[in-house]
Every structure is written in structure tokens, then in C-alpha cells.
Amino acid sequence: VVIRPGESIPVDGIIIEGSTSVDESAITGESIPVQKDKGDKLIGATINKNGSVKIKASEVGEDTAISRIIALVEEASSSKAPIAKMADKVAGVFVPVVMGIALVTFIVWLVLGYDFSFALNRAIAVLVISCPCSLGLATPVAIMVGTGKGAENGILIKSADALETTHSIDTVVLDKTGTVTKGKPVVTDIIGFDIDDNEFLKLAASVESASEHPLAEAIVEKAKEENLTFSSPENFTAQSGRGIRADIDGKKIVAGNEQAIREAVGNNSGFDSVFDKGNELASQGKTPMYFMADDKLIGIIAVADTIKDDSKEAIEALKARDIDVVLLTGDHKNTATAIAKQAGINKVIAEVLPTDKEEHVRKLMEAGHKVAMVGDGINDSPALARADVGIAIGAGTDVAIESADIVLMHSSLKDVATAIDLSKAVIRNIKQNLFWAFFYNSVGIPLAAGVFYLSLGWKLSPMFGAAAMGMSSVCVVSNALRLRGFKPKNIKNNKSGNDEIVLIENNEKKKEGKTMTTVINVNGMMCGHCKATVEKVTKAVEGVSNSIVNLDEKNVTIEYAEGTDLEKVKKAITDAGYEVV
Fold first, then answer.
1. How far apart are CA 137 and CA 437, in angstroms?
2. What is the CB neighbour count within 10 angstroms for residue 78?
């Protein structure tokens, strides 16, 4: 199958000719296009961005990834059980029970020697004062007002079940791309070397203006925001995965990733400190791009998918309500951890496929949690359908919106907390309505039956009984209408924002635990070879998941599992010929 730029990939397959970059955000959630070369696997329903490739189909029809996602959605949706409503059950037996009480009342008064008229009045009073209406109205009116109020605030609630269930949510699972983040790459860092930042950005935008890569679009967009005028590139050439070249105002510009620049300059160790800076940016979840002018490195531009303006505030609001927040994403763990740190999320599950998302949500539910899943893409659909409450971002895909129970039309995470507050207000209102309905009937029926007549002389005329019955319904409806005064709350989290991030490994064989971080100062590291050696020996220590050397600051950052012996890490560094300070 030949796939041209801009086309959707029709089946799962393997590239046998050509290379390209692919937008896999619909499946994996990764907003940055992924480079694909010969031998790499492509997933159906993803978008080919800027290269023509020939693929050999490996899975078709029901065996493709997108078909398996659809099957999971259907299975999860059909497995949901409706919430049993106590009011409906009571109302179903209320009428025959009341008729029985009225008949017993009539017979008892006749047996006690009272005349037919007196006994009949007591029986009729029982019938007219009893109020199945108040019981029947208690739930639906509150739900009707609640869903209407939700719509006013841009929260579309698809069913009464969803509105009722939302109040008990104790865990909110968030997708990253398009949910916590904006879903579009933007320039985050501009680092020029012996060149003015605006001049550097102008050169970078000039060469990238001829490229179709999404990262290039981010750089050009940044230059436009800064009102910079850039030149048209000449002799432009692009090699997929190997960067681009062009002549700009007489300068030969080369732009690309670390691999492309290393190929351009050869094994020049003088650039190691620059690449270290790029790796530092990459560890923060950013994508660094390097630029050369006339064989001289002039700077780095980092691009990333940044968090939405209100994401941090929304997550703080959820924490203030004692709700656990989990970031669940297909992105690399470094990117996921960086975004989690910015947003204030303490639990991260990264590098997961759509089927894994559904599985992680199911595990949380099996552990006794009431789970809400918030997402916007096709890849989130199985998890949205599986969760106790699926919440879709309004700007998301039709598949996600169809799978969800609640849709946030403003695409704001702050509305998740509002939806939970609204559900709690509705449930509280329903309980109040049911209490007063039961209280009214438990007092009114004995009074109408004449239970207090012999001892206190109290009896109730059927006319007043009918009036009381009407008033009970009015009271229930009036109480439900109080929900129209509901307003979103702005509850701030007073807890410390310096909590550790727990990276939950996406592997059943690994134990879930805290990922700790420490920085060790090391003397004797001078070059890229030293950097590679220290990173290699430290990663070999049991419990160490990652290590990043900073040659400029002469230190190494160690990421390790809780309980790891750091003395072994220091010994490994010393044994390699370096001094631990």
C-alpha cells in the first residue's frame, strides 16, 4: 500500500520503502509526530505527515488497532449497570400498600362501633393524604434541574445515572494531550549562542518556513507572534529524519535533531556541552532542535506541548476535594513526568496503549475506587466507556464524545470539579426530598387514619388531607428548584505543592512504587565519553531507572526506586575512575 503525505493510514503495517513522520495522537496521545523509517510499524487511522511511504499490511479488518479499540468501547459500554433508584421501588408498591391501609382503617373503625360515615371519612382521608407524587417527584425533578444547570455551565450530562454516580468519584484519571495540555506544539525555549535571540529566531523561521513538519510550524508561528519578518529560503533540501538545509541571506543554515547535527559536524567533541543542554531540555519533556549557520552552532529551539492555562488550577481544585488525580498517557515517561510536575499531578502512568488505558482504569475500579476518566481522543474511548463516569473534552473527537457520559463543552478541566460539585448538590437535594416525602407520609397517614383520635381526639378531614397532599408535592418541587441557584465553587488546595511524583510502571511484573531523584556531584568528568561512562555504570546499579550527567555543573541526576542503595551508585562511579564529592 502506497501512502502519500496528508493521507490517513488505512491498515496496520510495516514500512518497506521510504520514511516519514506520522501523527499518532489519535491512537497513542503523543502530540509530537513520530519519525518512521523502513522496518518501522505504522498504525491504522494515524496520519502520514510529510513523506511518501510504501507499507506491507500486517493487520486488516477486525485485527487492526482501531478495530480493537472499537470492540473494547462496545464491550465496556454494554457492561454498565443502571443505578437502582430507591424512590422508584418504593413508589411501585406505595399505592397498593396505601389502599390496604385505607381498607384496614375502614374495617377497624366499623369493628370499634363507629358509624359507616365516620369509618369512610377516615379511609378517604388516608387515600387523599398519602402522596406517591412526592416520592415520584423527589428524584426526577432534582435531576432535571441539575442537568439543566449543568448545561448552563457548559457541562452536558447524558444520563441520570451519570449525574448520580459522579458525586461518589474519588479518583480522576486524566489523559495528557488535549486534556491537560493544549494538544499543539509551541516554542518554549530559544537559546542563542553569540547571537541575538530575535535574529536567531528570524533565521530559524526562515529555514523552517519551507518545511511541512509540525515542529517547523511552531517555530514559524512563534516568529509571527514576535512580528519578525523572515527571508525566503533558497536551495532548500529536506531529508526525512535527518533535518533540513537552506541558504538564508547568504548563510548556509542546517537545522535538525542531535543525530542530524552530529552527522553534519562529525565527531566534534566541542559540541558536547550543547548537546548536554539539549538532553536537559529533552528530560523536561521538550523536543530540542539545533541550528547551524556556516558550520557554526548558533542555537537551540525547544518545542513542547504545554499545559492549558487552567489545568493547574483545575487539578488543585480536585485535590482540595480529596480526589486522587492520575495522569494516564501514551507519551514517554520523561515527557509525562515533566507535564505532571507543571500541572501538580503526583501519580503518572506513561507509555500506555489504548487497551492498557482501559486496563488501568479497570484495575482502579476493581481496587474499590470510583473512577472518572477524562479524555478527548479515539485512544481514550475504551477507558471512557469503562470508567464509572466517562468525561469527554468538548473539543475532542466524535468517538470520545460518544463514549463519554459527560461532555465539557468549554473544554476546561475546571468543569470536572464543577460537575462533581453539581452531582453532590443534586444527590443531597434528592435525599432531602425523599426524607420529607417519607416523613410527611409517616406522620400524615396515621393522623388521617385516626390513630390519635381515641387518645387526643385528633382527626383529619379528607378536604384538609387533599390540601396537605398538594402542599407536599409543592414543597418537594420547590426544594428541587433551589438547585437553580447552584454556582461553581472555587476551592483552593491548601496542601503543599512539593509532593513527590509517583511514576507507576506500565508493567504488571514491576512493583508500583515511588521514583526518587537525587543529584550527586562528581569530579573528573570532562567530555562526552566521560558522560557516557558515568551514565552507563550508574544505570547498571539495581533500582536505578535513569541517570543524566550535566558536564557544565559536574553532577549526575539519578532516578531510582525507593529503597535503592545509593552507596552502590557512588561506588560504581568511583570504580569507573571518578571522584564523588
1. 10
2. 8
- What are the residue numbers of the active site? 175
- For 15-26, the three-class secondary structure string (H helix, E strand, C coil) is EEECCEEEECCC
Residues 91 and 54 in one domain: no
Cβ 358 vs Cβ 375: under 8 Å = no
Q: In 331-425, at which residue ranges do the beta strands (DSSP E only) sit?
A: 347-349, 371-375, 389-393, 406-408
Alpha helices in 404-557 (DSSP H): 414-449, 453-456, 462-481, 528-539
DSSP code for 510: S
Please tell me what DSSP assigns to residue 521.
Answer: E
User: Under DSSP, is residue 30 helix (H, G, I), strand (E, B) or coil?
Assistant: coil
Amino acid at 317: A
For residues 283 and 188, state if they share a domain.
yes
With a cut of 50, say whether residue 93 has pLDDT above it.
Answer: yes
Last residue of a domain, one of 306, 325, 352: 306
Element (H, E) at 328: strand 324-328
Which pairing describes strands 371-375 and 171-174: parallel, antiparallel, or unpaired? Answer: parallel
> CA 177, CA 375: separation in Å to the nearest integer?
8
Task: Please report which residue ranges of 153-213 form alpha helices under DSSP H.
Answer: 160-166, 197-208
Q: What is the predicted pLDDT for the residue at 443? A: 79
For residues 21, 333, 283, 543, the Cα torsion angle rounded to the nearest 10 degrees is -140
For residue 176, the cross-strand partners are none
E strands present in 152-268:
155-157, 171-174, 181-192, 234-238, 244-248, 251-256
Nearest residue to 126 via CA among 439, 447, 435, 436 = 447
Which residue, chain included where needed, has cell 552527522?
263
| pLDDT tier for residue 71 given thresholds of 50, 70 and 90 | low
Residue 554 in any domain: the answer is yes
Indicate if 125 and 192 belong to the same structural domain. Answer: no
Tell me which of 39-43, 163-167, 454-458, 519-523 is least confident: 454-458
Q: Does residue 527 lie in a domain region?
A: yes
Q: Specify whether the CB–CB gap between 402 and 380 falls below 8 A.
A: no
- Intra-chain end-to-end CA distance of the chain, in Å: 58
Q: What is the pLDDT of residues 492-549, one digit of tens each?
A: 554 544 456 666 655 543 444 456 778 888 888 877 677 878 887 888 788 787 788 8
Under DSSP, the state recorded for 8 is: B
Distance CA 257, CA 288 (A): 7
What CATH number is associated with residue 39? 2.70.150.10
Answer yes or no: are the C-beta atoms of 519 and 545 closer than 8 Å: no
CA dist., res. 283 & res. 194, Å (int): 25
Write down the mean pLDDT value for the chain: 81
More confident residue, 516 or 125: 125
Work out how many domains the chain is built from and give that number: 4
Q: Is 573's pLDDT higher than 70?
A: yes
What cell was used for 543? 533500582
Q: Tell me how many helices (H) and strands (E) the chain has.
A: 19, 25
* Dihedral sign from CA coordinates of 531, 536, 541, 545: positive
pTM attached to this predicted model: 0.65
Domain boundary at 464, 485, 506, which? 485
Q: What does the pLDDT look like over 430-478, one tens digit per residue? A: 888 878 777 777 777 888 888 777 778 777 777 777 777 777 778 888 8
